[in-house]
Amino acid sequence: MAGQEDQFKKVLSHAKEYGFVFQSSEIYDGLSAVYDYAQHGVELKKNIREYWWKAMVQLHENIVGVDAAILMHPTTWKASGHVDAFNDPLIDNKDSKKRYRADVLIEDYCAKIEGKINKEVAKAAKRFGDAFDKDQFVATNPRVLGYQDKINSILSRMAKSLENEDLADVKLLIEELGIADPLTGSKNWTEVKQFNLMFGTQIGASAENSTQVYLRPETAQGIFVNFLNVQKTGRMKIPFGIAQTGKAFRNEIVARQFIFRMREFEQMEMQFFIKPGTQKEWYEHWKKERLAWHLSLGMGADNYRFHDHEKLAHYADAAADIEFNFPFGFKELEGIHSRTDFDLSQHEQYSGKKLQYFDPQENKSYVPYVVETSIGLDRMFLAVFSNSLIDEALDNGTTRTVLKLPPVLAPYKAAILPLVKKDGLPEIAKEIVEDLKWDFNTFYDEKDAVGKRYRRQDAIGTPFCITADHQTLEDQTVTVRYRDTMDQQRVPITELRAMIGKEVSVRNWLKKIQE
Ligand code: GAP
Fold this sequence. Notes:
By secondary structure, the chain is α+β, with helices and mostly antiparallel strands.
């Protein structure tokens, strides 16, 4: 646990120190749970967005994109259920005056029990050595089974109470488990109350004529309201998908864990419109395909797991999260939801407009069902960033901090460094930049000793450092130093573009989805 906390602290300070993420309006002491992406962060974020867009839109001939507005007609949110049901159950501590999400207090309690399971597993792994079979141990060890039963019964009781709007029972559960305020240890709790997460604002010049609107809490509704426009103008045939990336806003009360839970964040969502009755098949299809997308980045299969929802959102008939092993444990990274015909039917009802598809094979019209994939771009950023940040012990007894980003996502693909700032080396290095910059984001650096410059590039995740030295003047070759192995190789300048291209091309990385 301490190791995880240390890693998380490192992530926070590295993100700031190396120009990835800053607290929003920091000179005014910041705005809680709102962040700005800095010069390197914006590149990494853009590359993740592009990696998603290419996988979802470019590689699927039946998926197209839209970019809908953040502000939408207020009835949208009545129809979607957000005005009435987009709530978090909150509880206040009467002594500390701190406010918490009741469900998060209970989930954190369960995470502690899970910690005990992990300890049992680690102990047994040590005892049995190579012969240890984790799956078998977890399925048969009485102590582990006891812990798991406890977790299951707590979570299913909470899910049932929340579903039935039985907030008194949620409070009772907190009391029965003896959950205390994490900051003060006080168990003096108020009742549990529902709190709507949407940010409201006004459209219009004067108070009398203004209309209450909302900053969208999810991008999905911008897709639903455009379903028919896109279907007709694109002559789309079911099954087909509409994808979108963009900002969403939620007035999160438990705003913590850096960019994991923000008040302003970005989503990458795809709504896949299908024939009613085929939702199970498509739900399984998208679960598989989305996991394959994650795995293509090579961040370790052990770092992902599915979590099937017990408590389904008001719109879903099945839902699962892809959870990632963040520095604070396994948490939701992406959701795959079978949303039935809930959204389109609701919009039909509230708008009075038909939102149906005429199926030529069936010779009838119907409201399509939808399977949605929804991933937070900021969460994906945190997953990639935290997983890549490594303190590596070197043979000479020192350590280096290196950001082993998947090269396809790295902010800069290559740094071009003249060995010294004279003898014509800066000129030849700049010529290399001039050639490569048309294809790749490159970085030119001539300050300090070359070893120090390598370290700077390691810290921002640049996969290749290309050094022009005196030999370059003679034979037009350069030294290429690889970030991950620190190996160095002499390469003709004319081969650089192809060599870098092979390692960072989206094509080569995304092809792994099909493997
Ligand atoms: N349209 C469905 C939807 O919005 P969700 O599970 O509420 O579903 C989808 O959100 C994804 O958006 C989450 O898996 C997460 O990655 C991201 N997300 C949600 N709330 C977030 C927040 N406050 N900060 C950052 N990312 C968030």
